[in-house]
Design brief:
The chain is an alpha/beta fold. The chain has three domains: 199 residues, Cobalamin-binding domain (Rossmann fold), CATH 3.40.50; 164 residues, TIM Barrel, CATH 3.20.20; 205 residues, no CATH class. The protein has 30 helices and 16 strands. It has a seven-stranded mixed β-sheet with strand order 2-1-3-4-5-6-7, sandwiched between helices. Helix 2 packs across helix 7, helix 15 runs parallel beside helix 16 and helix 24 runs antiparallel to helix 26. The chain is globular, with a radius of gyration of 25 Å.
């Protein structure tokens, strides 16, 4: 059926637009998946943005938007081309949820334009903080910046108004819609950040709708669920093994947005909104049909509205769900709150720890103290609620050897409070390294130091650089100014100092053997492939441990072009034999051990750069531009002469580059940098 016939058939019922919404993967185009969507301990997060766009369109009397789940299906170029030849569309929405998906957006937009030249291609998500580059260097016609539901229905109305007008983009009409970035004579025009829906208009994902995007591959719907035994948070809760429990887990959101403005974090819109509780209960009932008894609450800011959060916990408990919350501010919970959550099915709480250095917390604009983090964590431990201390990050501007040591000391205190060795907590885990994502003050900082460049070509080169990367050392881009010998040492320094602190504080104390055994068993379980047969378990266990032991530099999104671990032999040896070595921590002085480790890692870095010629970010030219003059001056960080907010990277950028405020008022492209 052609477009006009479809329109005539549905005209009397509703406003009809032939639209397609597409999810976007992050893997490097052409790369083979390292791990299938059906693998891994964490369920695929339901496509919340896409289902919300469709829900709002239907609520405003439009027909249902078609859905093509490119991320889940991971189709070839020819398969995408065939889809759009067979599904001609007036408008196509690309959901670029993370800015590391630039290369995929460029690839997919090109294919769509080739197969369906008449389609208006719209890109939404955090990538649109770089709208100027996306619009000039890809086949995307329009970007939606900020919340997209209201803007999407505006674009659907626009599509109806433009029928039969030779597919010419009407900039004047588009700019009447909030949230639109579009080119006018090759200059960016921006109508302001998209409007946010009210709480009562927000929707939970529909699995029936998600299934329509799978092109008949209904088995792929199972990827939104995982068996609870793959998640550490639930394995450590004895209630998980009660016989009546439904065994599957899934991801869920109960709120949208964040009350904070961390300087390393992408932020597409202001505000914090909670979902309607009646709608939440309906969604929980639907989840039980999929045998779900475990929930991972993936809110950015769970618990900030305490009255609402108590009602959420009651609903989870009413429907016999165990749950964990993965994004909680330490200042949002008291010991009484934590006890209430535990009594109502909470298995685990994760806090955004980030650093044990107050200097770094201030630069990140966390707006709390190290003592606040300690209080929240130790309250969890006192009531027997698991809170994994895995959220440490290094590498922001302002990071030094001393701030890294402070993080190590804090980690050592946490391990002591748990009474388990640091090695048990971080055996298979990396310390995160900061990533300068577009739309963050961190990106803004690097841009104005001319580490990125200000032309469209330079920004595209950067977007290519950060496509398909993770927050790991192998992908670090040095906006700090520290010498590379220091950069490659930060993570190991955290471990060394943590082990030393633990060894000192554990004198005359005994290990918590019960928790130690649980965590040790968990490490072994996580090193096993859940999809292998029983007879293959032991073989895979050995292989997996060997591979995981080499992941000092971590992994990225998951293609086969960016995962080479065999070159990290020095890092592997240090992590396995030195970083968590209790004897060395007790008896080898810092002035001997630390330089030895530091320069061994620096030798490895140079071998990778000059001999192996590793092309990962840490080895490329971006880092060669860095010099000590880029380090933040002490005057900006002195707590005696500055306020906490003055020490935020956002504030430092304004002080160091006062001309930016004028530029951002005059240039729409610059106004998007740094977020709203």
């Amino acid at each position: 059926m052609d477009i006009m016939s479809s329109i005539e058939k549905n005209f009397e019922d509703k406003k009809y637009v032939n639209s397609v919404l597409c999810s976007i993967p992050v893997e490097t185009p052409g790369g083979k998946l390292r791990r299938k969507r059906s693998e891994g301990p964490v369920p695929i997060m339901p496509k919340i943005a896409i289902t919300s766009l469709n829900h709002w369109a239907k609520k405003n009397n439009f027909n249902e938007c078609k859905f093509y789940d490119i991320d889940m299906l991971y189709p070839t170029d020819s398969q995408i081309r065939d889809y759009f030849k067979n599904n001609k569309a007036e408008i196509v929405g690309l959901s670029a949820v993370v800015s590391t998906s630039y290369m995929q957006v460029k690839r997919i937009a090109r294919i769509i334009k080739e197969a369906n030249p008449e389609a208006l291609i719209v890109c939404g998500g955090y990538l649109t903080a770089a709208s100027n580059t996306v619009l000039k260097k890809t086949d995307v016609d329009v970007c939606v910046v900020g919340d997209g539901e209201i803007a999407w229905t505006g674009l659907l109305d626009y599509s109806i108004s433009q029928r039969g007008k030779n597919n010419k983009v009407n900039v004047e009409k588009l700019l009447k819609i909030r949230g639109i970035a579009v080119l006018d004579n090759n200059e960016l025009k921006f109508s302001g950040y998209g409007q946010t829906l009210s709480s009562c208009d927000m929707s939970f994902p529909s699995f029936e709708y998600l299934k329509t995007g799978l092109q008949g591959d209904n088995e792929a719907l199972k990827n939104y669920f995982r068996h609870f035994s793959l998640a550490e948070e639930f394995l450590l809760d004895e209630r998980s093994f009660e016989k009546h429990r439904r065994p599957m887990s899934t991801s869920i959101h109960t709120s949208k947005g964040c009350v904070a403005k961390c300087t390393f974090c992408q932020r597409g819109s202001k505000g914090y909104i909670t979902y309607n509780l009646d709608d939440l209960e309906k969604h929980l009932i639907e989840l039980k049909e999929f045998n779900v008894g475990f929930l991972s609450v993936d809110d950015e800011n769970f618990g900030s509205n305490k009255k609402y959060t108590y009602e959420v916990a009651k609903l989870f408990h009413k429907h016999d769900m165990l749950w964990n919350a993965t994004g909680v501010r330490c200042t949002s919970v008291t010991k009484e709150d934590l006890q209430f959550y535990k009594d109502h099915g909470c298995s685990s709480i994760k806090f955004g720890i980030e650093s044990g250095s107050q200097t770094m917390l201030d630069i990140m604009e966390k707006k709390f103290e190290v003592e606040d983090v300690k209080k929240a964590l130790f309250n969890c431990y006192e009531i027997g609620l698991y809170s994994p201390p895995l959220g440490f990050m290094v590498g922001m501007p302002g990071e030094t050897l001393e701030t890294a040591k402070a993080s190590g000391r804090f980690l050592g205190e946490i391990a002591t409070r748990l009474r388990v060795p640091v090695s048990i907590l971080f055996k298979y885990v990396d310390i995160f390294y900061a990533i300068p994502l577009v739309g963050t003050p961190l990106y803004d900082y690097g841009k104005n130091l001319k580490l990125i460049g200000n032309t469209v070509d330079e920004e595209e080169a950067f977007l290519k650089l950060v496509s398909n990367i993770g927050a790991y050392k192998r992908y670090y881009i040095n906006f700090n100014g520290a010498p590379m010998s220091e950069v490659v040492f930060w993570d190991m320094l955290v471990f060394l100092e943590a082990t030393r602190t633990y060894a000192h504080l554990m004198k005359n104390k005994t290990i918590d053997l019960k928790l130690y055994k649980k965590l040790k068993d968990l490490n072994e379980r996580q090193s096993m492939n859940p999809h292998s047969t029983i007879k293959d378990k032991e073989k895979f266990k050995k292989e997996a441990q060997e591979v995981k032991g080499m992941q000092i530099f971590g992994g990225g999104g998951g293609d086969d072009k960016t995962h080479k671990f065999n070159q990290n032999f020095i890092s592997n040896f240090i992590k396995k034999n030195i970083a968590f070595n209790d004897f060395l921590a007790r008896w080898c002085p810092r002035f001997l051990l630390y330089p030895l480790v530091r320069y061994s890692l620096f030798i490895e870095y140079n071998l990778q750069k000059f001999l192996i010629k590793d092309t990962n970010n840490i080895h490329i030219k971006t880092n060669s531009k860095v010099n000590k003059n880029l380090r933040i001056e002490k005057e900006y960080l002195n707590p005696k002469t500055t306020k906490q907010i003055d020490r935020s990277l956002r504030s430092i950028v304004k002080k160091k580059f006062p001309h930016l405020l004028i530029q951002k008022k005059l240039d729409p492209a610059k106004s998007l940098t740094g977020g709203p």
